[in-house]
From TrEMBL:
<keyword id="KW-0408">Iron</keyword>
<feature type="domain" description="Nitrite/sulphite reductase 4Fe-4S">
    <location>
        <begin position="113"/>
        <end position="253"/>
    </location>
</feature>
<keyword id="KW-0004">4Fe-4S</keyword>
<dbReference type="GO" id="GO:0046872">
    <property type="term" value="F:metal ion binding"/>
</dbReference>
<dbReference type="GO" id="GO:0008942">
    <property type="term" value="F:nitrite reductase [NAD(P)H] activity"/>
</dbReference>
<keyword id="KW-0349">Heme</keyword>
<dbReference type="InterPro" id="IPR052034">
    <property type="entry name" value="NasD-like"/>
</dbReference>
<keyword id="KW-0560">Oxidoreductase</keyword>
<dbReference type="InterPro" id="IPR006066">
    <property type="entry name" value="NO2/SO3_Rdtase_FeS/sirohaem_BS"/>
</dbReference>
<dbReference type="InterPro" id="IPR006067">
    <property type="entry name" value="NO2/SO3_Rdtase_4Fe4S_dom"/>
</dbReference>
<keyword id="KW-0411">Iron-sulfur</keyword>
<dbReference type="GO" id="GO:0051539">
    <property type="term" value="F:4 iron, 4 sulfur cluster binding"/>
</dbReference>
<dbReference type="InterPro" id="IPR045854">
    <property type="entry name" value="NO2/SO3_Rdtase_4Fe4S_sf"/>
</dbReference>
<protein>
    <submittedName>
        <fullName>Nitrite reductase</fullName>
        <ecNumber>1.7.1.4</ecNumber>
    </submittedName>
</protein>
<dbReference type="Pfam" id="PF01077">
    <property type="entry name" value="NIR_SIR"/>
</dbReference>
<dbReference type="GO" id="GO:0020037">
    <property type="term" value="F:heme binding"/>
</dbReference>
<dbReference type="InterPro" id="IPR058240">
    <property type="entry name" value="rSAM_sf"/>
</dbReference>
Amino acid sequence: MNRVIPIAVDSPAAHPSAGNDSVPHSAAQSLPHYMRAGTLQLAALPPLSLYVHLPWCLKKCPYCDFNSHEWRTGGAIPERAYLAALRADLDAALPLIWEDLGKAGMVSGHAYGKSIRTVKTCVGAEHCRFGTQLSMTMGVKLEKMLFGMWAPHKVKLAVSGCPRNCAEAGIKDVGVIGLDSGYELYVAGNGGIKTDVAQFFCKVETDDEVMEYSGAFLQLYREEGYYLERTVHYVNRVGLDYVKTRVVEDASNRKALFERLLYALQGYEDPWLERVRDDRKRREFRLIPVEALA
Ligand code: SF4
C-alpha cells in the first residue's frame, strides 16, 4: 500500500519570513525545495525486510549498535551447518551473479591462470609532468588486445611513461618505456622469487608498433614455450638473438605471428558468461542432493 508520510510541510507557516521582503531570506531558503531540511516526503514506505547476520565476534563490543543477541541455548554455535548452508546458497547463486555482472560489462579476469595479467602502468603523460608518452592509454590498449590470452605460464606487462620507469617495466615479461621519440621494448624479465632483469628488445615509434612487436613476441613464446616455462626461461633456452631474428628483423614473420595471435584471441569467451549461456556448463553449479549420491 502506498502511503505518503508527511514528515514536514514546507509552507509559509513553517518559514515565517517567506513572503516578507523586509526579512532577508536565509541561505537555507534559497536552496531548492528538495534540499531544505524537513521537506522530505516518501511516496511509500520501503518494503519491510529482515537482515540476519551471523558475526563471529567473541563478545559484543560496547560501541556495537546492532540489534544483536548472544547465543544462549547452551549448545555449540552451529557454525558448520551455517557455513554449509551459506556455501550451498552461494554455489547456487553464482551463475545468477555472473549473469548480472556480465550485463554490467564486468567479466572474469585472470588472477591465477597461465595467462595475461592486468597490465601495470604509471600515470604517464596523462597526469605526470615528466611523462613523454600516454602510458595509461598504452597499457589499456595492450590489455584489451591481449585479454583472454593463454600462455605457457603467466605473462606480465608494464608501461612507463618515461625512462624514470615508475611502472618497473624492467622486470616484466614485456616492458614498455616511453621516450620522446617513441618507445623502448624489453622482454623476458621476471619479478618473482628470483628477479631477472628484462633484456632490451628494440625501439619503436608508434603505439601500433608496440602492439605488433609485443604481440608477435608473445605469440612466438606461446608457440614455442614449454608448459610452465616463463618468458625468461624460454628466451634463455632459445637465445635472445634467435627471438630478435624471428620478430624484430623479419617483418613478414612478425606480421604473421601477430595475425595468428589476433586470430586465436577472437575465439575467447568469458568463462562466467559461458556458464550463464550454456545450460550444460551451468549444470556444474546445480546442487546434487546427498541422497542422489548414496
Ligand atoms: S615513469 Fe615517468 S611519466 Fe611515469 S610516473 Fe614516473 S616520472 Fe611520471
